[in-house]
Structures are given as C-alpha cells and as structure tokens.
Design brief:
With 317 residues, the chain is an alpha/beta fold. The protein has a domain of 167 residues: Alpha-Beta Barrel (TIM Barrel). Helices cover 40% and strands 19% of the residues. It contains 8 helices and 14 strands. It has an 8-stranded parallel beta barrel with strand order 1-4-5-8-9-10-11-12, surrounded by 4 helices. The structure holds zinc ion.
Length: 317
C-alpha cells in the first residue's frame, strides 16, 4: 500500500494562548500529519520541530506582485537560502526554489524566465549551503504539456524532487487536476519525487496514493476553520457543519476526538466561532478529522484492490 505523505500547511500564528502560555495546534492532535509546510514569508513564535518540514518560499503570498517580493525584500535564490538557514532545517526537509505562480493576466514571459533562472541558481546554492536538505522546484505551465516539459527540464537540471503547482486555485476541477497529475507522473522517471501543491481532500489523497505521488499538502482544514466550518469524518467522507455564532445555540453534536476533548478541558469550545482560540481549536479538530478521512479512504481503496485481485486469482484457478 502506498501512503503518500501529507504536509499540513502551518499558518502564521497557529498557536492557542491558554493561561498566558502558547500551545501549537499540533500539541492537541492524536494523529500527526507526515510533516508541515511552512512558508518563510512569515515569522513564527513557536514551531513543531520533530516532523519533516517542507520549507516554502511564500509564492502564494506575492502571486499578484509583478516582481516577487517578501515585504520590501526581493525574493531571490540567495535570499531564500538565507531564510531557510535561519530556520535550521533538518536532514530530509524539503526546501523550495523561489517561484512565481502563473496567474491569468500576469506577465507569463517574465514568470517563466524568473522560475528557470531561480531554479538554476537555487540548486547550486542549496547543494553548497544546505546539503542535508532536498531542493525541490515547482513546475508551472498554462497547459499540462507545458508543465510536463518544464518538469523534465528541471529533472535534467538536477532536481530529483518536483512539485506540481498552479492547481489549488481550481481545486473543484477534481477530474482535470487528477488527469494532469497522472500525465506528469507518467512522463517523469519513477525515481523522481513528486509533490502536489495545495490539493489534500480525501478524494485527492486516494488519487495520489493510486498514482504513487510521494507527498501533497493543503491548508483547507485551517482556512475553513476560520470560516466556521466544522469537519466530521465518516469513513473517507467529510461532512462540513457550521459552527455556532457567538451567543447562539450549538447544534453540532458533541465531538469526542482528541483535540476536542483536550480543548474542552481547557474551557475552549471547538463548535463555536467568535474568538481566535476557538477558530484555532477548530483547526486542530478539522485537521484530526481530515487525517482520519484521508487514511480511511486510502486503506479502503487498497482493501478493495486486494479483494478484486483475490477474486481474479480465484476465477483463474
Ligand atoms: Zn473533534
């Protein structure tokens, strides 16, 4: 069974303040993700240190800027390496070459040039400065064919880890995105590490498992927690409830997952909106539910495959 790694995206300040102490949302999880995706565009007060980290250059944040900038600083390969170094990456952490996302209406000619130049320089710097980490470059393209060609060039340049970008903005096109990743996966050498950026629903997790994708990430559990969405995993499905507004009656049934029970003991209700602590506690709950659903869908898919295999073997005998 192939279990792709899920890197949960860590936001800017994903810690709760309880009795004046900061507690990361990871402290409340019973089941941890495979790792965390952290952008160097934000400074964090506390960080989970024991799991692998995918260090990202923060391209989503500056995607609308003509030239990549972080605050007032130009995003360059040298700057990115210096930022990664400041965070003391560990052996096996992924470090991303700075890239510029292809968004409609942007100067694609410039973005193509920027991405290629950045990937070239970054690989040299990474090999010299952070040899314990795995450099990863993002393939972009207007079409899947362009993404395949770019991924090939990046592999030949020396990147043995490629991230597929630009699909999270169109996450609802499940068929289209899975078809694109299938085409890219099939065109790259089998030993090339593949990461899918920003698509982490149970349906996608099942597809990535089937395709032999190595890892993926996503922040939906966090973004939706702040919009008041309360996940409930039922096998490989996730039902989304709406958290109660301040002063309103809670209609969502009591949840006995690890984050919810732990947080209730600290007087925090995950089923209500209104405060940062409540939203973040719901993020911990949503992440726990997402992890349960992802694992469940992959396991049941593999059981089904085993069942079909046994049936076909029996019919041969
Ligand atoms: Zn819960």
């Amino acid at each position: 069974m192939h279990l792709p790694k899920y890197y949960a995206v860590l936001g800017k300040g994903d810690y709760l303040t309880i009795k004046e102490e900061r507690h990361g949302i990871w402290e409340y999880l019973e089941k941890q993700p495979s790792g965390w995706l952290c952008s160097i565009a934000v400074n964090r007060a506390i960080m989970p240190r024991d799991l692998p980290i995918f260090w990202d250059c923060g391209a989503v944040k500056y995607r609308n800027a003509e030239i990549p900038v972080s605050g007032k600083t130009l995003v360059t390969p040298a700057w990115a390496i210096a930022q990664y170094e400041k965070n003391f990456p560990k052996l096996g952490d992924l470090i991303a070459a700075p890239d510029h996302i292809f968004i409609p209406g942007s100067n694609l000619r410039f973005r193509r040039k920027f991405n290629w130049h950045s990937a070239e320089k970054f690989l040299t710097f990474a090999q010299q400065t952070l040899p314990e980490c795995t450099p990863i470059a993002v393939t972009h393209g207007v079409t899947t064919q362009e993404k395949i060609e770019t991924a090939h060039k990046l592999y030949e340049l020396g990147y043995h880890a490629i991230a597929i970008g630009g699909m999270a903005f169109n996450a609802s096109d499940v068929k289209g995105n899975i078809a694109a990743v299938t085409a890219i996966r099939n065109c790259l050498p089998f030993n090339c590490y593949i990461h899918v950026l920003g698509l982490c629903s149970p349906t996608y997790a099942k597809a990535w498992s089937n395709l032999g994708v190595d890892s993926f990430d996503g922040s939906s559990y966090l973004l939706e927690a702040f919009k008041g969405r309360f996940y409930k995993a039922n096998g490989g499905q996730i039902t989304k409830h709406i958290a109660a507004l301040p002063g309103c009656k809670i209609t969502i049934p009591l949840c006995y997952c690890h984050p919810c029970t732990q947080l209730r003991m600290s007087g925090i209700e995950t089923r209500s909106s209104g405060s940062r602590n409540q939203n973040l506690s719901r993020a911990a709950h949503n992440l726990e539910q997402l992890l349960l659903a992802q694992t469940s869908v992959i396991i049941s898919e593999n059981r089904e495959k085993e069942k079909q295999l046994l049936l076909s073997l029996k019919s041969c005998n």
